[in-house]
Amino acid sequence: SAVISQKPSRDICQRGTSLTIQCQVDSQVTMMFWYRQQPGQSLTLIATANQGSEATYESGFVIDKFPISRPNLTFSTLTVSNMSPEDSSIYLCSVLYPGLTSYEQYFGPGTRLTVT
Amino acid sequence: AQSVTQPDIHITVSEGASLELRCNYSYGATPYLFWYVQSPGQGLQLLLKYFSGDTLVQGIKGFEAEFKRSQSSFNLRKPSVHWSDAAEYFCAVNTGTASKLTFGTGTRLQVTL
Questions:
Q1: B46 pairs with which residues across the strands?
Q2: Within its chain, how far is the Cα of B13 from the centroid?
Q3: Mean per-residue pLDDT for B15-36?
C-alpha cells in the first residue's frame, strides 16, 4: 500500500488568509484526489489532480478558491484561498494505487483546518 | 448519479458482540464497493472492497462484507467486536468513472465494555 503524509496536520487561520496543504506519497502514482470533510459530515471530493494536466474540479468547487498543483508523480498541494469560517474542515488527499487485483484508493491522515 | 446510504448514524454494541453496519447503494450496474474506517483524529483506512466474483469478501481486522445485488446492499459484519473497533465507518462506491469515490454519511460505532 502507499504511504501518504500531509502537512500541516492542523492549523488555525484567520479569515481572508490562504493556506497551502501539502501531500507527499512514497511512490509514484498517476491519480491523486483532494477531499473535504466538514465537521460531522462525510467526505466530498473537491478535485482530481493528475500530473501534467489541470486539475478537474467537482461541482461546487472552483479553481480560484481551491487551486491545486501537481508538479510530479509523488506530490501535490491544495490551497484554500480567502478563507472563511465555512472552510473549517478536514482536508484529505488520496491516491489511486494498484493493488494485487485492482486499483485501491489510499488516504492521507488529513489536515484539520479551523478558520476564525 | 450513484449514491450511498448508511441508515444508521450511530450504533452502540458491547465488546464481544456481533456487528452489522448497513450500506445501500444506488447505481444501475454493479459498482465497485468499499468500506473505510476512520479512527478519531486519523485518516481513512481501507477495510475491504468488492469488485467482482465472490460476493462475500474478507477484509482486515476480522471484518467481512457481503454484496447482495438484489438488495443493492453491501453490509459490513464482524462476529466479535473489540473496544478498539470504536470509530467512524464509511461505505463508498466507485462506478469506474475516473475512479471517483462517493461516500455514505458514515456510521459511528461505540463499543461498551
A1: B36
A2: 16
A3: 91
Q: Reduce the DSSP state of residue B71 to 3 states and report it.
A: helix
Distance of CA A39 to the CA centre of its chain: 16
Pairing of strands B73-78, B64-68: antiparallel
Q: For chain A, what percentages of helix, strand and coil (3-state, to nearest 5) are there?
A: 5, 55, 45
Residue with C-alpha cell 465555512? A86
> Which of B23, B103, B105, B107 is best to mutate for the A interface (most A CBs within 10 A)?
B103
Return phi, psi of residue B60, to 5°.
-85, 165
Size of chain B, expressed as the number of residues it contains: 113
Residues of chain A with pLDDT under 50: none
Task: Cite the beta strand spans of A38-88 per DSSP E.
Answer: 43-50, 56-57, 68-72, 75-80
Write the CA distances from A95 to A14, A59, B9, B22, integer angstroms: 30, 20, 27, 26
Which of B24, B4, B6 lies closest to B106 in space, CA to CA? B6
**Do residue B43 and residue A4 have CB atoms under 8 angstroms apart?**
yes
